[in-house]
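Q: Protein A?
A:
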Amino acid sequence: MFKRLLSPPEQSHAAKTVEIYGWIIFLEGGLLLLFPDFMARVMHFGPLTPQASGFLRLIGMLVSGFGMLYVLSGRLNAEGFVFATLIDRPFVAPTMATLWYFGALPGPLALLFAIEDSASWLWTLLTWRAERRPRFSWAHPNNSRALRLFDSNEFVADMFQLNLKRRRPGN
C-alpha cells in the first residue's frame, strides 16, 4: 500500500484532479499552521491576539488534514471519494457567500475560496464525465461498417442500398 502512495500504478484523470486539489489545500493549511500572523495579514484579518493565532493554527491543521485526505484518496484512485467530492464541493461557494453576508469572512477571502473550490470542482466534474463517455473504437464489432467504408465497392453498394430504401414509396 505504501508503494502505491509513492508511485501510483494506475490513476484515473479525475482522481488526479482530486490529488492536485489536495496538494493545494494541504499547502494552504500548512501556511496557516506555520505562519498564522502573516496569513492573517494576507487575508485582511488585522492583528491577532495570541489566542486567535492559536485558533488559526488549529484551522490550518484541520485544512491540512483535509488536503492530505484528498491527496491520499487521489493517489489511491478512490473512485468513491472522487464521486463524493463532486457532491459536497458545490456547497463551498454558497457557504462562503453566507459567511461573507453575515460578516464572518472578508469579501475577498470568501470570493477567493469560492472561486478556487468551484474551479477545481468543475475541473474534476468535466474530467470525471469525460472518462465515462463512450469512446469510438475501430476494432469494436459494432463498428465494422465504419471499417468497410474504406472498401470502395462495398461503400458504393451500401450507399446504393440506402438510396433505394429511401425512394421506396410507403416508407
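Q: Protein B?
A:
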Amino acid sequence: MKCDCVSILKSAYKQEKNAKNYSGLIAKRIDPKLHQQDKAQRQAEQLKNTFEAIARKWHSDQVAKPNKWKPDHAQRVIRSLELHIFPDLCTRKIDEIMPLEVLGLLQRLESAGKYDTAQKIYDVVNQVFKYAVKLRLSLFNPAAELRGELAKVEQKHYRFIKDPQRDRARCLRAFDELRWLSANTRPITAFPLCICPPFRIAFIALV
C-alpha cells in the first residue's frame, strides 16, 4: 500500500496546531471543550443572522399570514431574491450590510435596463431590513433612504371610459366598426354588453 505522505503531514500539522491552541487555553485557565462549544454556538448564531436566513424567515412569515400573499406572488418574491440578491449577500450578517452595497446591487439591475425590476427588488429588500430592525437583529435599515437614488419608472396609463353616459355611444360605434375587421367577432360583440345597462342589452338582443 502506498502511503499518502501529504495527508499524514497535514494531519500531524493540524494535531500540533490544536495541541498548541489547547495549551494556550489551559495556560489562560480556559476549558478547551467549553471554548469549542462556545465557538460553535457563535458560528451557528452568525448563520442564523445572515441576510438569506432572515429574508427566508420574513418570507415564510408573510406566507403564513391568512390572505396576505397568493402562492404565485410568494414564489415571485423569493425567486427575485434568489436571482438578484442572495448570490451577493446570502452569507453576510444582516447587521453588517451597508447602504452602498445595497445600492450597488440595485444600480447593477438598472445598468442592465431592468428599471422596474430594480424598484420591485428594492421594495422587497427594504421590507426584509425593516423586519430585521423590528426583531432587533440590526440597528438600522440600510435601504431606508435609497429609493430616491433609483431611476423613476413611468407608469403606463391605458385608455378607459371616464364618463359612461357621454362615451358609451361612441364606444359602441367603435366596437361595431371593429367587429367587421376582426376574424373572431364573438368576444368583440359580447364586450359592449359589459358596459350597457339592462334595457340597452334587451334592445341589442332584439336587433
